[in-house]
Amino acid sequence: MFERYFKLSESGTSVKTELLAGLTTFLSMAYILFVNPSVLGATGMDKNAVFVATGLIGAIATIFMGLVAKYPFAIAPGLGINAFFAYSVVIGMGIKWQTALAGVFVAGVIFWLLTVFKIRETIINAIPADLKAAIAGGIGFFIAMIGLVDGGLIAADKSTIIGWGDWSDPKVMLTIVGVLISFALYARKVPGAIFIGMVATSIVGLVTGLIPMPSSIVSGVPSLAPTFGQAIFGLQDVFTWQMIPVILTFLLVAFFDTAGSLIGIARSGGYLVNNELPRAGKALMADAVGMLGGSLLGTSPTTAYVESSTGIAVGGRTGLTSLFTGLFLLLSLFFSPLLVVVTSNVTASALIIVGVLMASNLAEVDWKDFPIAAASFLTVLGMPLSYSISDGIALGFIVYPLLMLVTGRGKKVHPIMYALGITFIIFVIILQTNG
User: How far apart are CA 129 and CA 114, in angstroms?
Assistant: First the structure.
């Protein structure tokens, strides 16, 4: 059955190889099962419900990718966009998490329509590659800062605004140990380094008594009731001027995350044909299904996981790899008691490492072209300093078309960029008025 449907022999693989690849991909991305509840839990959302929503929508979207697009690419809620959801929208703007989920749902509907009518490529192409790279790099700085703050490595300082945290605190020392372990594993290119680093840090925390011992390891799947369908109830408050830039940012970040990840994975795996990805529409649809379904289950937008490349590296070539990865995600739902073990000191290393990886995108910015450099710089700097992804994007998207106009290159700017710039100007005015 698998042989005929996935054409395993033709792709030079086997069920055993695909199983190993699926397990490898799962172990490499399993950290999101614990990091996502930690991030979204800061908004008051039930962590157990978010845990289930994360694993369930990851399984659904990844299995869809495997069965329909037939690629070994995994889909799950993404780091960065979940931080925007929690820290920028809910905590920063004071929007209820139910309304924020409704914003994800609306963005998901638009996302799905844009995918169906193949408009996504047009919008993506309208935004300069340099700004796309700056957004990805800026998000890297932003989520790394969250990891540094949550792990206690940095803290507010009255004299210098920001400074080192109390490194003599045993829990902060645990964060440092976790970061060093994870960095070492990743530098050695150990498969599943981020996940293994979190496990090792948790063990150190348990042995030293800094982390409470879980009451059990395996249990029944927690209830989804606290978050399921809340996006629908939040729709009554979503159609406001304040939510327009939020929905727009959900769309933009989801656009860039998925497009960048898919291209990167496909290039490394040799799936591109004439610089294009066959069945790209079906692959993008898997992400659209994830984003829309995730909002209904109770989690932030999904994205294609670059960790999929680890499964490809051990021989995964077809959608059967994704099918196995999805099944492992379903099995993981029975391990919710471990959430108490995975504290912010444990997840800090994952956030920092992913931040480092995303920051590498800044190499693609043309720093010698001032309009591009200025817009990119403000985008990157604005995110961590304002503690808001949308504020950073707003700065870049306002400055870029303006500087292109004053340097006589206004015709080179796509009309969509002018529309986005005006939208973000309105956003900044509303933000300052409400603030």
Answer: 20
